[in-house]
Amino acid sequence: MDTIYCEVVTAxxxxxxxxxxxxxxxxxxxxxxxxxxHAPLITSLTEGELIIRKEGHEDELIAIHGGFMEVRxxxxxxxxxxxxxxxxxxxxxxEAAKARAEALLKQPVSEEEFERxxxxxxxxxxxxxxxxxxxxxxxxxxxxxASEGR
Amino acid sequence: xxSTRELRRRIRSVKNISQVTKAMQMVAAxxxxxxxxxxxxxxxxxxxxxxxxxxxxxxxxxxxELHPLLRRPAxxxxxxxxxxxxxxxxxxxxxxxxxQAAIESMAESKVPVKLITVGxxxxxxxxxxxxxxVAEFPGLPDQPSVTDVIPLARLVVDGFRQGxxxxxxxxxxxxxxxxxxxxxxxxLLPVLIGAVEEEAMYEYIPGxxxxxxAEYIYEPDPHTILDTVVPRFIxxxxxxxxxxxxxxxxxxxxxxxxxxxxxxxxxxxxLTLTYNRARQQDITSEMLDIAGGAEALRQARERQAQERSAxxxx
Lengths: 150, 314
What we know:
The complex is a heterodimer of chains A (about 150) and B (about 325). Chain A is α+β, with helices and mostly antiparallel strands and about 150 residues long.
């Protein structure tokens, strides 16, 4: 099966690097699926989950909050503003942050604070969703069907 | 010679000083290592971001038209200068050197320079000199994160776009190794893709490689993408400069505290020698006193006995 080299990098560290079969990314215009030998592409990313699929491996789930992605010469580079692997997410902390943001949104606050609280809520919700997804998924995914006609 | 009691007190206080400086040295060493690791960890992002920028630029004839932050201003009327220093002293020449480098660069420029200071020491020095400070940021935490530099990045990017600054320079301390830190002044804005060597943190930017590729698919369009890439890039430059400065400050502090510890230990040795000598002398003089007293007593007694016997003969 064909592979494409994928790297997920933030300013602080490298989150993921390796040959993979498919990358699903939250583009500004909707979810994008990148398969090996994809045409050159540059796109901005929004908040969402980045899914990395690799044959015989568990799907890698990464919560990302904005950034951009470049596909070029069978190589995907994701430059995220912030990113966390699903297993690194602290669920208790995300829940606390969510409750805090929700409480703040109920109060009369300035527009700026409201925006900040909303952003915090979005981030916390995303973290929780990604962490939750990981828990529900089977530990080992079945191998992907071999592509035909190659 | 000082009294033994006073010497003992001095030895004790110097010993305390050496313990404090030793502790500060250890703390600085571990903080320095962490800052260094963080600075190195930013390199991959910076390399990839630069790749994206150069790739985008290589497909367009007029790079400077592409984005306002990549445009060289027609005329330079005001220069913005960011000065990164520490909040605290006790770190050798660290603060002084970078402030000096900034002052030299300001003396060379023909147009007014507006200062943005990060850290208390730089602010104090520039206030004393009566320079034009337009913004100041308190010192950064020991383990800064990218979010700590975002307000600063926003300030200079907005200033550049509105024409408050036609050029933004960055004065910081480049961490070379534990013993060597070099204050430097480099350009932060505009980002000029052709002239990497003048850029701040250029050692983190890989060489230009105009590799021909098919036209990219842009989502949504090159302008919007550059609108996210370029400001991120500026944030990263600032973040790296801050990390290099923090590592430099800690290593400067570590070295100066090591010197202080060594001096204190030397002083303790000297004082101990003096103290022992003084103690010996005290003992000697006490013994002399006792011996002298005993001798005087004996002589007095002898004299008395002689007098008595002389009376007896009479």
